[in-house]
Amino acid sequence: MTSLIDLGTRTKAHVIKDDQEAIAIAKELAAEFVKGDSDRDRHRRLPVEEINKYSESGLWGITVPKEYGGAFVSNVTLAEVTKIISEADSSIGQIPQNHLYIVESIRLDGNEEQKKFFFDLVLQGKRFGNAFSEIGTKSVVDVQTRLARSGDGYVLNGRKFYSTGALLADWIPVVAKNDDDNTVIAIVERSTPGLNVINDWSSFGQRATGSGTTIIENVQVPESHVIPQYRAFERPTTQGPVAQIIQAAVDVGIAKAALRDTLFYVRNYTRPWIDVELEHGYEDPLTLYNIGNVVIQVHAAEALLRRSGEYIDRANENPTDISVAEASIAVAEAKAIAAEASILASNKLLELAGTKATLEEYNLDRHWRNARTHTLHDPERWKYYAVGNFYLNGVNPPRHPWL
Amino acid sequence: MTSLIDLGTRTKAHVIKDDQEAIAIAKELAAEFVKGDSDRDRHRRLPVEEINKYSESGLWGITVPKEYGGAFVSNVTLAEVTKIISEADSSIGQIPQNHLYIVESIRLDGNEEQKKFFFDLVLQGKRFGNAFSEIGTKSVVDVQTRLARSGDGYVLNGRKFYSTGALLADWIPVVAKNDDDNTVIAIVERSTPGLNVINDWSSFGQRATGSGTTIIENVQVPESHVIPQYRAFERPTTQGPVAQIIQAAVDVGIAKAALRDTLFYVRNYTRPWIDVELEHGYEDPLTLYNIGNVVIQVHAAEALLRRSGEYIDRANENPTDISVAEASIAVAEAKAIAAEASILASNKLLELAGTKATLEEYNLDRHWRNARTHTLHDPERWKYYAVGNFYLNGVNPPRHPWL
Amino acid sequence: MTVIERPTLENYAAIARNLSQEFVETAVERDRAAGSPTLEIARLKESGLLSLLVPQAYGGIGATWAEGLKIVQELSKADGSIGQLYGNHLNLTTLGHVSGTSAQKEQFYRETAQQQLFWANAINTRDIRLAIVPEDDHFRVNGIKGFGTGVAVADRRVFTALQEGVDLPILFVIPKEREGLTALHDWDNFGQRRTDSDSFQFQNVRVEQDEIFGHPEPPTHAFSTFLGIIAQLTKTYVYLGIAEGALASAQAYTQTTAKPWLTSGVNAASQDPYTLHHYGEFWVSLQAAIALTDQVAQVVQSAWERDVSLTFEERGVVAIKVFAAKVAATRAGLDLTNHIFEVLGSRATANKYGFDRYWRDLRTFTLHDPVDYKLRDIGNWLLNSELPAITQYS
Amino acid sequence: MTVIERPTLENYAAIARNLSQEFVETAVERDRAAGSPTLEIARLKESGLLSLLVPQAYGGIGATWAEGLKIVQELSKADGSIGQLYGNHLNLTTLGHVSGTSAQKEQFYRETAQQQLFWANAINTRDIRLAIVPEDDHFRVNGIKGFGTGVAVADRRVFTALQEGVDLPILFVIPKEREGLTALHDWDNFGQRRTDSDSFQFQNVRVEQDEIFGHPEPPTHAFSTFLGIIAQLTKTYVYLGIAEGALASAQAYTQTTAKPWLTSGVNAASQDPYTLHHYGEFWVSLQAAIALTDQVAQVVQSAWERDVSLTFEERGVVAIKVFAAKVAATRAGLDLTNHIFEVLGSRATANKYGFDRYWRDLRTFTLHDPVDYKLRDIGNWLLNSELPAITQYS
Hints:
Number of domains of chain C: 3
Oligomer: heterotetramer
Largest sheet of chain A: 4 strands, antiparallel
Strand content of chain C: 5-15%
CATH topology of the largest domain in chain C: Butyryl-CoA Dehydrogenase, subunit A, domain 3
CATH architecture of the largest domain in chain C: Up-down Bundle
Structural class of chain A: alpha+beta
Helix content of chain A: 40-55%
Low-confidence stretches of chain A: none
Distance between the termini of chain A: 36 Å
Strand content of chain A: 5-15%
Helix content of chain C: 40-55%
Radius of gyration of chain C: 22 Å
Order of helices and strands of chain A: HHHHHHEEEEEEEHHHHH
Structural class of chain C: alpha+beta
Number of helices of chain C: 11
Distance between the termini of chain C: 42 Å
Order of helices and strands of chain C: HHHHHHEEEEEEEHHHHH
CATH superfamily of the largest domain in chain C: Butyryl-CoA Dehydrogenase, subunit A, domain 3
Strand order of the largest sheet of chain A: 1-2-6-5
């Protein structure tokens, strides 16, 4: 039994040719997505139509290598696109996170046949979801889901939580241990019997991601749909940093959204405080001071995000222990500062706007709820550790999707 | 009467051809300057020999326009060079600050004859000092020094404080009000009768800058040596942002120096604290956390410094009200974050190194003293104001050398 | 219905503690439901704690401000909405004492104690939509007033309205039964959701002479405006309570539910060195804010006891101290309610835990009036020896 | 030489205030000169304040810890070095009480009061270069000991040394006259410059039986190690004093000397809205740290009065509270001594003002033992109910 939601009428995706086009299209889409952002959050509404538009725009295919017909944009651009969309709606910005992760995984560890097959699907506009994380395990690397050999194929069993994007996906990649206890990814088509995706996401933030539970019962998987993911971390690759830069870009997007609403609200609504003789709230020198501070923190996060994209691009050209470690560390820096900036900006928004801004009709707390939820994906405190250990002791960070 | 210090034997400066060469030379010089940094600070010794090497290297001429034989490097490079030298010795890094300001002033407001004359001197390795600020006035823009018409030339009278670089300069530009009450710069050769530079700099930081007092008594100035500085602020020019990016670069250099010494000291000397069972101090997870945080703040300052250089370069290509305002604001952001980073890094250095690091022999407090002194050049709090006012209210910052 | 011991100076704190523990169990649920705090007020009445500040001479428990405000903190640990409602109530029960005639003082103290009356208000003098007009020997009130925290369920309801030709707002109290008042049910904010801070529509509401308080009027003595300072301190205790509640829940979650991070090398979340560090930070800031506030409460209590002999100078200096406590509590609380998540992890964002309510409540209530202006007043006193201007907020 | 009233419980605070005001006038000059605090100790002796904690039964002033440590804060306002010297002294004068026999307690209390003896030490147990060897009925000590704060000018000098075959260090006190001790004059640090914390070379120094304290030894009761906790609180008061001194000087400078910034639109630096804001911040953090520390001092005083009945559990909980105060004071002080410059401006960096001495002193002294480990202990207590390990620092 498979619970399927209607994905609506979809057309074949446009194929984007270069970085510039990707950014231009992202800006267009963002202008549209921002309109319903608050409403979707309030009603926990899955952005089905928006995600169709997003994937049809070709932006879900921009990391496909050139030899397979993609634009293979730089990681600077990938981060920029994610940031632009996330500023408009951070749930929509987060949804392709795992899709992009899988595209990278196929690029790094898929065989030629898999690359041809899946990259073609991606360029057509097909979407990958995610069934990676589990609940009730000892830690994030403890995977209970098993992919067992069965005839000339495999059979998959397990239960996943935090399945961001799975509800809206055409294919759902499932992280599992194989018979050798290596971590692999089995890519399962959404209508496969035994696959069940439930929208039971109940966090207070990133409400429209529909990051719910995936139940996998005796799902048949052909060998050709299994990616040997563990290899990505046996040698130096950009798998980890690419996963993280998208995360960081979502956080920066949230920070920018909070800043945007601060500027709008304070400029248009905030009254001057009674203790100061000013005509308008936006003249208050302390308000300006605080806004200046938020702007600077947000720009610093943007600048470190760009810088980390440059490091990943360099590591991609020549992936070595050190170039990949540098990329991981640069992304960790960006993610740490992005988390701080998003928390700062989403708090200051309300402090500067004033009590009236707490009315549910404005829904201005969603930026804080989104920031606070999304920045917890993996703990900030261990980013600082990794950065310190690299610079002080020359210890390369561990290779996994959280660095 | 003029007090002259011996500037030693000097040779004609090398002429640098491009950005890349400038950075390579800066790195070479830095490796040399860093050796005597602590010693010069401790003894308040003027870096005469070092400044000769610095100006002979050609780095004091890199902003001379191409049509006059200079490399006219980008402002990204100018900031990078200043940062590299300041990391090695922030006093040396600060000394050419006003020289570079005057080169920019001549480029913007000198006439053809002045450009030919002074740029040629600059490329030869001649140095400008500075006699800009005054003490005991109402605020920094209140200038008491007067340049009075006298025959076909002028006569100059006044008293200046904070004359960074003047002791080591060949020419000393003096900011004065002319008979029309406009602010001009009179460039006076060091041996001119009536000019007296005293090394009475007594701040606790930036000790080797010899930023002292200049006394000007009835100094004769020919018309050809007067630059109509006020014009730089009547139209949109990069005069202000260029002045500020050099300041910001010095602060970033100080932050980097503090971080460098933190890594060195903690790695080599710091014992583990008794409450934790570790063999080495550098394994302490809290130390690593803190170092990670300092690294990120310093990198954020570097990234915003580079970004502000890009803004100035764009404004230089097409100086309009908005492009110059954007450049000023970007530099204000960089300077604000650089100040924070330098204070943070120079404090954490000692916290992480431990009590022994307070021994005078290590002289590790110099980074804090330098940061605390140099970041006060103009108040941080009004940077935040300018940034906030620009982003919230669309108000362009005032045009003056402090923005 | 539970039979409750009548509270005395010996047992009121224990009663409040029990009540707080009772409230905390339903806090997440009540926050989600929002709506009217009918249940909470009923339980407060039954507890007998509504007469906490009424002097024993009038039949009350007779606690001091320093004692009474600790109860505001205790209840706020469970639920910021209850804390705010109860804090406001304590303030309003002394209105007859501070701004009333001696007859009003006697009447309001006594009936509050005897009948366990619950007080609420919509005083906000920045809202000028309510008009009062004299008519024969009484008054009539028409218009709208916003932010009527708990007014819908209150036995005594305090408002301000403007009278033509009179500069300062007129302060009055009317009983629940008084006709012509309609709640507009427009309180829909993301925090302090259970305070039911609706706007109220007045239609020809009658107000008697003896329901008008003598103040606010041009203050002839400093004491008449001292309740404004106490109100600031009361909010401070609500902030502290919310922060304390957040810390206690986070602590329990870390001890029982949170998981160790994969690179931490420890077996339990409660052993993570950074988690220990963060908890240390939370605790230090919170303890410092509590210590400062408790110290200031003693100062406020002494000033209160000076009654009408309180000078403007004394009042101003007390105000500065209260402002400092308020800023410290705001900072520590916001820091804590933002950053507990970093040690709790992703799963703690699930709505069933309701960990966001601490931030939503504190963020909402700390916006009541800006702390930046409290800092300015402190700076202005330090550098220029100026006392804060007397307003509803200072 | 000024004739000074003998201090009593009524006037000791005023005497300390006068002395502090006297010291502040020469503070910049003495900081620059560094060297030995001969003058300062002479003035302390003359003041009679050296017997502040000696019980009246032994001829002292008889102040409590809570009272005595406020004097450490008062003197530190003028000069962190004096604060440290005096704070150490107060601790050491009770050494006979905590770790001695009843004869030692009586002797040291009494002679300190009668002769106004000044005490100093180099206890640092992490420094293991000093060896003590039994010889007939006495001992001989040889080696080197570092960080002898004020030892050079002290009448009574306390050290620890290691004895072969004995696990724990031996604690002893010797008079100034004792032969064989040489100061190495190696204290040249950028802060607390006037503490003269030299290393000392011991050459065959004789130590009598009755100069050895019974402790540290494996603690049979918690009280015997309680002075370690008091030492942490004493440092906290030095930090608070340094910060208070910095704030007071900054305030005076802003009021009299600082200039308004060109775009500020105000006529005096003391009117700059950001300057007011910063002062508000400084004050709030400092007041919160002071309030917490004063509250904790009361707790320490109560624990002290429990004497040998103090339990390890009680000792541990008091330690946690002291740690919190220490962290709060460190944070507030460092923040203040770093950021005052932003409101003072460039000219305030001139050496004649000496504004950097507050930062140099505080930065140096707060490194004594890392606050991060205090935060860890607090977290470990909150989450795992573990009490801090008993060391010289806890």
